[in-house]
Write a structure and sequence with these properties.
This is DUF2267 domain-containing protein. By secondary structure, the chain is mostly helical. About 70% of the residues lie in helices and about 0% in strands.
């Protein structure tokens, strides 16, 4: 096991993610990514959540699975409800990361674009389909 490589992979993703989000603050980018990943994880069926987790770098897998349990997907039908759900996954939402629903919307869009470019196309499509049709998801 080469922990330095795991850290390098996680840092590479963080640096790329900062570019997608248009921010320089790596801590903020990591919080946003975590919040969106946890929202997606809890919204999609368990099998899909596990498949997504398998495509993440090892350190991000740990973040992704933190607090994970077998579940029925959270029922969310409207985009505003989805954006509020994302905000609940981040303790800093009101103050720094998602002060408004617009901030949550653009962060979700940017994270989805990042995922589209960093996981398999099939997995991305399955995630996009698992979200309700009223939730705007960038398509490949």
């Amino acid at each position: 096991m080469n922990f330095e490589n795991y850290v390098k992979d996680a840092n590479t993703w963080t640096n790329k993610l900062c570019n997608y989000l248009g921010i320089e603050d790596e801590n903020k980018a990591n919080r946003i990514f975590r919040a969106v990943l946890h929202a997606i994880r809890d919204r999609i069926p368990t099998a899909e959540a596990i498949h997504l987790g398998a495509q993440l770098p090892i350190l991000w897998k740990g973040v992704y699975y933190d607090g994970f349990h077998m579940h029925s997907p959270v029922r969310i039908r409207h985009e505003d409800e989805w954006l509020e759900f994302i905000r609940t996954k981040d303790a800093f939402a009101d103050k720094a990361d998602f002060p408004t629903l617009d901030h949550a919307y653009y962060a979700f869009q940017d994270v989805m674009k990042f995922l589209r470019d960093h996981i398999s196309e099939g997995q991305y499509d399955q995630i996009a389909q698992a979200l309700h049709s009223e939730i705007t998801v960038p398509m490949a």
